[in-house]
């Protein structure tokens, strides 16, 4: 049931039908935020369980007051959403305060810079992202729902259930494309697995139509190396099943060439899996080098092989870093912490 108009204080739009990191953030965060603040979503591509208002109610909402008398927050995460917020505020005269979250790590266009300057507050998802912003901002790292990600109770049984052979399983999950470094991971596995007969690699994710040839190239390389039974491509699985695959792993690899933030290392570590990640996106802020995993240069096959082999050859190190990873995520990356920090921003903006 949707909150009554006076109880709605925050509106978080999603104006992109395709599943993306932004959409996933909204889907994860809104139910947590709804426990402490009146928040609704607006837009497309959102699951039915989220509180969501239709366009007509959005228009009428701007002419009603909140129960507290504070201005409502419009929390945008894309250019189109900033633009709609400006339309509601300055053309329709809805008394909104505008908040924008940026995950981008590149120089913004003149148009985007203009939109950002109109915001009442800007949140950066990492310190790396903050460096590209020319306005004051708050850095709030993403968190994850730890109820959904936890260590395996019986890792051997899970591997049997998923038809994963071997005693050391290396995972690489996410979109399959060159930007994600899937080819680097495949090359590293082709180099490494012949020397380690008890190791297996799992490449989990989907290749969109434009990247279908890239995926086929990787599968062809694997077939040419005779490793089809040890480098597995199970495809994409439903979101609620992904944690079961993390739990089968001994080590997770995030081989991206570029990344805005990247939640997969956190999800892996929450399942007590150490991580080898490239130094892109927020990864250097998530993975503690030599404590919860290793950091390597993007695109560097030899560094990846050496980092992974260190774990294969040292069971004690793997177990210690797994333990450290679990503690690190629980101490620093609960989604409740992210929601609380964002709420602090909302309260500050409403009072300004």
List the helices and strands and how they pair.
Layout: E1 10-14, H1 21-33, E2 39-43, H2 55-61, E3 72-76, H3 79-91, E4 96-102, H4 110-117, E5 121-124, H5 127-130, E6 138-139, H6 155-161, E7 168-173, H7 182-192, E8 199-204, H8 212-224, E9 231-235, H9 242-246, E10 251-254, H10 264-270, E11 275-278, H11 283-286, E12 293-296, H12 301-312, H13 315-332, H14 335-351
Structure description:
With 352 residues, the chain is an alpha/beta fold. It has 2 domains: 157 residues, 3-Layer(aba) Sandwich (Rossmann fold); 178 residues, Rossmann fold. It is built from 14 helices and 12 strands. A 6-stranded parallel beta sheet has the order 2-1-3-4-5-6, with helices on both faces. A 6-stranded parallel beta sheet has the order 9-8-7-10-11-12, with helices on both faces. α4 links the parallel β4 and β5. The longest helix has 18 residues. It is elongated and about 70 Å long. It starts with 9 loop residues before the first strand and ends with a helix. The mean pLDDT is 94.
């Amino acid at each position: 049931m949707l909150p009554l108009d006076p109880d709605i204080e925050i509106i978080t739009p999603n104006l992109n039908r395709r599943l993306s990191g932004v959409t996933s953030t909204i889907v994860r965060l809104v139910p947590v935020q709804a426990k402490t603040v009146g928040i609704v979503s607006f837009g497309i591509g959102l699951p039915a369980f989220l509180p969501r208002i239709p366009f007509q109610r959005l228009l009428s909402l701007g002419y009603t007051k909140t129960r507290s008398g504070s201005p409502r927050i419009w929390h945008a995460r894309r250019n189109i959403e900033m633009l709609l917020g400006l339309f509601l505020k300055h053309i329709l005269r809805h008394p909104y305060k505008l908040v924008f979250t940026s995950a981008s790590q590149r120089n913004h266009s003149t148009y985007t810079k203009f939109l950002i300057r109109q915001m009442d507050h800007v949140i950066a998802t990492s310190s790396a992202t903050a460096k590209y912003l020319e306005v004051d901002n708050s850095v709030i790292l993403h968190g994850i729902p730890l109820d959904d990600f936890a260590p395996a109770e019986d890792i051997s049984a899970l591997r049997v259930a998923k038809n994963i052979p071997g005693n050391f399983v290396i995972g690489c999950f996410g979109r399959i494309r060159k930007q994600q470094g899937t080819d680097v991971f495949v090359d590293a596995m082709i180099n490494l697995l012949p020397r380690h007969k008890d190791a297996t690699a799992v490449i989990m994710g989907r290749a969109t139509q434009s990247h279908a040839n890239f995926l086929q190239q990787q599968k062809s390389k694997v077939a040419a190396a005779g490793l089809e039974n040890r480098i597995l491509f199970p495809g994409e699985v439903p979101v609620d099943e992904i944690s079961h695959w993390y739990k089968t792993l001994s080590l997770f690899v995030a081989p991206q060439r570029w990344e805005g933030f990247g939640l997969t290392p956190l999800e892996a570590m929450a399942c007590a899996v150490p991580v080898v990640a490239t130094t892109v996106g927020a990864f250097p802020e998530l993975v503690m080098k030599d404590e919860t995993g290793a950091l390597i240069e993007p695109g560097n096959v030899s560094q990846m092989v050496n980092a992974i082999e260190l774990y294969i050859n040292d069971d004690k190190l793997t177990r210690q870093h797994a333990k450290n990873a679990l503690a690190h995520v629980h101490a620093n990356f609960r989604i409740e912490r992210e929601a609380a920090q964002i709420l602090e921003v909302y309260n500050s903006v409403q009072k300004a």
